[in-house]
Specification:
The chain is an all-beta fold. It has no helices and 15 strands. InterPro entries: Cadherin-like_dom, Cadherin-like_sf, Cadherin_CS.
Length: about 220
Amino acid sequence: MFAFPLKQMILLLGRNNVRYSISSGDPDGLFRIDSITGAIKVSGNLDHETRASVLLNVQATSGNPPVYGHTQVNIDINDINDNSPEFESAIVRISIPENAEIGVPLFAAHATDKDSGSNGVVRYKLANSGSDLFKIDAKLGHLTLTRRLDYENVQRHTITVTAADMGLPSLSTNLTILVEVQDMNDNPPVFEKSQYSLSVRSGATSRQTYFRLYKSTDF
């Protein structure tokens, strides 16, 4: 919203013995004109995102019988940085296999900003310690790995992505990404020993158990 002071004069059209009025072009009543001086002033709250410009049709009246003159006044409403970037939700959950490739996009963060120009340009960064394992493309918002995941080491990660606009001062908002690491079958079973020895007496039957392997583990 453009914070233009109410009642501040923005244009003076006045001449003696002439009366002025806005005949059309301002259905929302954002501006008014002094009927005697022709001074055009702000009378409503201006919002660039709602209406970026207004074309006023101004009528001047003089004499008896009256004669009329007409002109147009084009007013551009400048944008200010009054909107923060917005994500569709504040928290998202994603699941990633532990063998995910380094540098391949895992998630695309996307925020929108209602402002115009540089005020509406959004850039992304990681705001917490997750940045040593993850990184994000500042322009595209693509989240990627900087090194391999390991389910056996860490099963969950919490990442905070900050979306900030390029306005002055900059406005920002955060997105929390909850990452679940999927376990993959990447470890073969491991025996306690590499070799076992045992003796079986003569005449042993198939129903007897003579040896049982323990602690064959799969991480």
